[in-house]
Amino acid sequence: MSKALVTCRAVGLGAVGAATVLALICRRKSIANTVNSFTKKYRTKATVRSTPYSPMPPPKKLKIALCQISVTEDKKKNIETALANIKEAAASGASLVVLPEMWNCPYSNDSFPSYAEDIDGGTSESIAMLSSAARDANIVLVGGSIPERSEGRLYNTSCVFGRDGHLLAKHRKIHLFDIDIPGKITFKESLTLSPGESLTVVDTDIGRLGVGICYDMRFPEMSQLYAAKGCQILVFPGAFNLTTGPAHWELLLRARAIDNQVFVAACSPARSSNANQYQAWGHSTVVDPWATVRATCDHTPQIVYADLDLAEIEERRTGLPYRQQKRLDLYALVDLKTLE
């Protein structure tokens, strides 16, 4: 009889209680063994110090456009508004166009199920519009996000299209927006949505993009991994609210930019005129690797433009050589997906 079982019986636990305790002990040992194995295999000083940063693609110059559009309960109207903004942005010389989070429906748990579309099944009217718009305008398009229905689950999903209208990548929001600020705002995306399970790095002919959605920007490790993978622009369709927006929106965008010495762009919906709908902060913004706000706006419908020279990334990294100064003998950033 094991010492653990004797102890359980000594303190008055029955067979079920003893079995539960033993299961927990075994689980703890299993976790400890996994951690020890990981440590031995991956966390030696030599291995950590040699962890490579992926090289970036050659730097290019481009104009980015953030389409801060009004969102209504009328999906057809939302699609028409998004298309009109994409066309206007392309006509103004933008080669990278971004739409906001949940641009085809009101931002609410009540709306997500009824507005959701089957992207993989090819029956998505919103995705069909985005694909043809990217092709017709000859642009790279980060199509904000829409509610996606897939295999009985709902996701907050962003699709990225190339100049030929081909779907390059699909990002499902990883970190769900579940908050409760007493007297201010309570929202739980997890009541209807499921989280994504992977990072999304997209190579395009204007540069390498790392895609996140709104709440994703609050988690610095995600952006750090994107930078390590050679991303030049981090793109966040988002919809902060009137509590978190004024406090954190610009702060987080500038933090992610200076932490990783990359460009960061975040596109919000315009604030709704319907007081009963979710009120977005607006203020779509582009930040450069020096954490300077290159372009922004207020909460009204408009398109925000910025001219970017991706060569600035290497310039800033040369002046402030964070990567060469990291103490990888003390800490490390690990992409767990690469270890599976």
TrEMBL record:
Q: What Gene Ontology biological process does one annotation of this record name? A: asparagine metabolic process
Q: Which molecular function GO terms apply here?
A: omega-amidase activity
Please list the residue ranges annotated as the CN hydrolase domain.
62-310
Family annotation (SUPFAM superfamilies): Carbon-nitrogen hydrolase
Give GO cellular component annotations, separated by semicolons: mitochondrion
Hydrolase in keyword set: yes
The record's listing under InterPro entries reads: C-N_Hydrolase, C-N_Hydrolase_sf, Nit1/2_C-N_Hydrolase, UPF0012_CS
Is this entry keyworded Hydrolase? yes
UniProt keyword list: Hydrolase
The family note in this entry says: Belongs to the carbon-nitrogen hydrolase superfamily. NIT1/NIT2 family.
* Designated name of the protein: CN hydrolase domain-containing protein
Natural source organism:
Polytomella parva
